[in-house]
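hey m, so remember when u said the tokens were messed up on ur end? i reran from scratch. heres the input so u can diff it against urs
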Amino acid sequence: MSKHVEKVTVERITYESALPPSEVLARLDKLVHRDASEGKALPALITAKTKEELVQRMEDMAGGDLMLFGTLRPSEWFKTYFERDLPVVSSYNIGNPLSALPILTHTLLISLYMPTKILILGKDTHESKGTKVVYDLPSSLIEAGDRAELREALLALDVKLEDLVKKITGAL
């Protein structure tokens, strides 16, 4: 047995918006095809019998867009535990397996970070105070080194995530 410890430096991106958390979440739900993909994306991947079937299922769910794999909204149980109102806290696991394939062909380590997480934070308990959207930059999670294809695929995912975040925060 052996153990290897590696330090990883990650670039964390935070966007702040005057939009209330409910509006940011509604925009995000629409853009990640929540109705079509939540709770369905993973089973569709696992049960596909052929490459063609897998590709067709992902295309049907979200086209080339990001889709929702799951959410965690701890602010609901935080309220119960802490016995007071707290800002919205909502974590989304989003991605598109077809977009991830060029990255996975270079390194399976990216599986540690996929699907990508986006955190939605209310700035205060009042909706009117605005929202923060936080995520880790995919290209900072895995060292591409001299692998140009991998670097390009990671940078493309960076752009896709940033575009999504700009749309949900009103920056676009």
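this time it looks ok to me. The mean pLDDT is 91. if urs says something different then somethings off w ur setup not the seq
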